[in-house]
Structure formats: structure tokens, C-alpha cells
């Protein structure tokens, strides 16, 4: 397959614009799913495990299918795709989804998220396999090493923080408690901080516009959620730790 450069540029720009649009549109509330979702008797709901499994799966399957059907793709591109993007979505699809104790998820949000994962899976996979050109020294480049380090640190923080959140509830419980431990001692959105660091690390390691656009999208999408989660905790819990910030330790 040859590189569809124009399509890659359109999708990448579209992703940044969608992220900015979300930021502006949802600057006052975060109604889509989870704790900020208002009561909506007409909304069709799906169990959280089913929703996360189905919506995240395309971001794993599409790059793998692209890899299996491409015989020429760059080997560094394949290595990066498997070692970063696919690894993240394997965890999200087969571990996070199946263990979550979240409340039911709106069907419409699941469909939109699944559509996003299809486009993003195609964009990242196609770019790394067919468009990116890495020279032979790329694995020794400081951008590659720093980016991968950031990616793995971010992923570890994200997984550990999601683990802490999950264990705040007993099976079947739907209450909110104050998270403690790990980076939650510093920020209310520790899982989001990990995920944002992860995708900026991926952008540095691949030095690519599509990866940067996904990192910016993530910042615009989950950055505000961290802020609203933080406000929620401060309102709900009078004893909420005063020094804890929303997303960036000691700063914001
Ligand atoms: N890259 C992206 O653009 C993007 C976008 C969205 C999500 N994500 C990632 O997907 C994962 C989940 O995102 P999310 O928005 O669902 O995270 P979240 O709102 O922090 O919730 C994560 C899970 O923990 C539960 N939970 C959260 N705080 C809790 C508390 N104080 N007490 C008890 N349970 C609590 C939630 O239950 P409820 O559902 O019942 O609230 C949910 O099951 C995160 O790792 C996030 O980084 C990434």
C-alpha cells in the first residue's frame, strides 16, 4: 500500500479540530459519561465492560490487520506501532475493559468512541507502516529514547491510577470515594496525567504529526475531565486534600 499523505494530513488536522471543538463546547460541563452525566431517561445504556471492550477494540484490531496485510512496511514503524500504540490498546481492551466497575455507559457515546478508535487506529497504523521514514540511526536518537521513556512512564502511571480507582469500589457498588496513593497524592486526575504523558511520549518517539494530533486531542478531551473531577471532589468531600491539584502537580 502506498502512503495516502493527504488523507493522513486531513485526519490529523480533523483530530486536532475535534479536540479543540470538544474543549470549547464542553468548557462548562463534562456530560458525556461517568459522574458528570445528567439523568437522561431516554438514553440507551450499555454495561461499562461491554462498552469499553467494543469501543476500544478497533484501535487494536485495525493496526494489527494493517500490519498483517502489509508486506513492505517499515520495520521501525512496525516495532513502534506494536511496542506503543497496540500495547496500550491491548491493555485497554483486554484488561481495563474487563475489570472496570464503572456505571453503565451511554450507547451513543460508545458508538462515537468506537468510530474515533477506528479512525485513529487506521491513522496511526497507516502512517507508521506506510508513510513514516526512519533512518537507520533512529533507535539511537535522543527523541526516540526520551519519547519511549515518557510513553512507558505515562502508561505505568495510567494503569496504576486506574487500578487505584477500580479498587475504591466493591463489586456492584456505585459510589465515589477519595482516591489515595500513587500520583493521586498530587493530582485528582492521575490516570489522565499518565495518559497524556503517554501520548506526548509516543509523539516524540515517532516524531510524527498524526501522533502529535492524537496527543493534543487527548489533552483537550481528558484535561478538562481532570478539572471537573477535581471540582467534584472539592465540592463533595469537605476533607479533600487542600494541596492536591487537578492535573499538573503543584501547578494546576
Ligand atoms: N486518550 C483519550 O482521549 C481518552 C479519553 C477518555 C478516556 N481515556 C482513558 O480511559 C480511562 C477511563 O477514563 P474515564 O474518563 O472513565 O476515567 P474516570 O472518570 O477517572 O473513571 C475511571 C473509572 O474509575 C471509576 N472512578 C473514578 N473515580 C472514582 C472514585 N473517586 N471512586 C470510585 N470510583 C471511581 C469510574 O466509575 P464511573 O464510570 O462510575 O464514574 C470509572 O469506572 C482512563 O485511563 C483515561 O485516561 C482516554
Automatic annotation (TrEMBL):
GO terms for biological process: androgen biosynthetic process; cell differentiation; sex differentiation. It is an enzyme of class 1 (oxidoreductase). The chain crosses the membrane at residues 7-26, 46-67, 79-99, 105-123, 144-161, 207-228. GO terms for cellular component: endoplasmic reticulum membrane. Its EC number is 1.3.1.22. It is a multi-pass membrane protein. Keywords: Differentiation, Endoplasmic reticulum, Lipid metabolism, Membrane, Microsome, NADP, Oxidoreductase, Sexual differentiation, Transmembrane, Transmembrane helix. Residues 104-252 form the 3-oxo-5-alpha-steroid 4-dehydrogenase C-terminal domain. It comes from the Eukaryota. InterPro entries: 3-oxo-5-alpha-steroid_4-DH (IPR016636), 3-oxo-5_a-steroid_4-DH_C (IPR001104), SRD5A/TECR (IPR039357). Converts testosterone into 5-alpha-dihydrotestosterone and progesterone or corticosterone into their corresponding 5-alpha-3-oxosteroids. It plays a central role in sexual differentiation and androgen physiology. Converts testosterone (T) into 5-alpha-dihydrotestosterone (DHT) and progesterone or corticosterone into their corresponding 5-alpha-3-oxosteroids. It plays a central role in sexual differentiation and androgen physiology. Belongs to the steroid 5-alpha reductase family. This is 3-oxo-5-alpha-steroid 4-dehydrogenase. The lineage of its organism: Eukaryota, Metazoa, Chordata, Craniata, Vertebrata.
Amino acid at each position: 500500500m502506498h502512503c495516502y499523505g493527504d488523507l493522513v494530513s486531513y485526519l490529523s488536522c480533523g483530530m486536532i479540530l475535534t479536540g479543540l471543538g470538544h474543549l470549547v463546547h464542553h468548557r462548562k460541563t463534562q456530560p458525556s459519561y461517568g459522574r458528570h452525566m445528567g439523568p437522561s431517561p431516554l438514553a440507551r445504556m450499555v454495561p461499562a465492560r461491554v462498552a469499553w471492550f467494543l469501543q476500544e477494540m478497533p484501535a487494536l484490531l485495525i493496526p494489527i490487520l494493517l500490519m498483517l496485510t502489509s508486506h513492505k512496511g517499515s520495520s521501525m514503524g512496525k516495532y513502534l506501532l506494536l511496542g506503543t500504540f497496540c500495547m496500550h490498546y491491548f491493555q485497554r481492551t483486554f484488561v481495563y475493559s474487563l475489570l472496570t466497575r464503572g456505571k453503565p455507559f451511554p450507547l451513543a457515546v460508545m458508538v462515537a468512541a468506537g468510530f474515533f478508535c477506528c479512525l485513529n487506529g487506521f491513522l496511526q497504523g497507516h502512517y507508521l507502516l506506510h508513510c513514516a521514514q526512519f533512518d537507520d540511526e533512529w533507535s539511537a536518537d535522543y527523541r526516540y529514547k526520551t519519547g519511549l521513556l515518557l510513553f512507558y512512564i505515562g502508561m505505568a502511571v495510567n494503569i496504576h491510577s486506574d487500578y487505584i480507582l477500580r479498587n475504591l469500589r466493591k463489586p456492584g457498588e456505585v459510589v465515589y470515594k477519595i482516591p489515595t496513593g500513587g500520583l493521586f497524592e498530587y493530582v485528582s486526575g492521575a490516570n489522565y496525567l499518565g495518559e497524556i504523558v503517554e501520548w506526548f511520549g509516543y509523539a516524540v518517539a515517532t516524531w510524527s504529526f498524526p501522533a502529535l494530533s492524537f496527543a493534543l486531542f487527548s489533552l483537550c478531551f481528558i484535561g478538562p475531565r481532570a478539572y471537573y473531577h477535581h471540582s467534584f471532589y472539592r465540592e463533595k468531600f469537605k476533607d479533600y486534600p487542600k494541596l492536591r491539584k487537578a492535573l499538573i502537580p503543584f501547578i494546576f
